[in-house]
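BUG-235 | component: ligand-complex export | severity: low

The export step for cytidine-5'-diphosphate jobs runs without errors, but we want the raw record kept on the ticket for reference. Input record follows.
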Amino acid sequence: MKNRRKKFVIAIDGPASSGKSTAAKLLAKKLKCIYIDSGSMYRAAALYLKENNIDLENETALNEILNKINIEILYNSEKEENVILLNGKEVSMKIRNSEITNYSSIIAKKRIIRERMVWLQRKIAENQSIIMDGRDIGTVVFPDADFKFFLTASINERAKRRFLEMKDKSASSRIDDISLKKIKEDLKWRDNTDSTREISPLKMANNAIQIDTTNLTIEEQVQEIIDIIKNEITL
Ligand code: CDP
């Protein structure tokens, strides 16, 4: 009988555009396991709360509303990427605009929201190997993860990556609206909001391995991770 591979969890944290999601996605393909971009869950929640004008200060209303938010992450094998469903409707693109991006950082400060997301994230990982990226995956969600990585990159490099990503995804006629300067300002604001919040701030777990991806290609960055895990996880 074939040896079954032991279930594993790989946590990848770091600031926005440090390469987490791209690395998680490629790594998952190589390791033939699922990857979850936990940020997309905060983004989907932000979209729901914004569209329904929910007052974030009203804890009772927030609690009730959270029961009505159903977030699912499915894998589209044709496109080889995850699809985010909010109450059954696909929102994968809608959650990426700058308004929802910034709002996700605001709603992510709320304890009640974080508790729900962490519960969901652990549930997804219950019966399967997983690579999850985010801000608190190695510190809070999976403190016992088999491997923890913390990816960083200079602010200029991260702004450039986000600019190219947005350019790639938006209709070519809209690209003029996206300024590199505004992207950089938004990233700095979000870095600050995420690292200074009271609950589960963005920080490196004590036992995480830090990788500065500023001068690395995606392939080099994934290779660094593979070199570290390959003795313990069969590819
Ligand atoms: O893609 P990008 O790195 O820009 O952001 P993201 O991973 O999609 O996360 C969006 C926002 O969700 C972050 O700025 C955080 O405020 C929040 N978030 C969080 O608080 N905890 C996580 N585990 C993941 C995201």
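Assignee comment: Attached the raw record above. The first strand starts at residue 9 and ends at 13.
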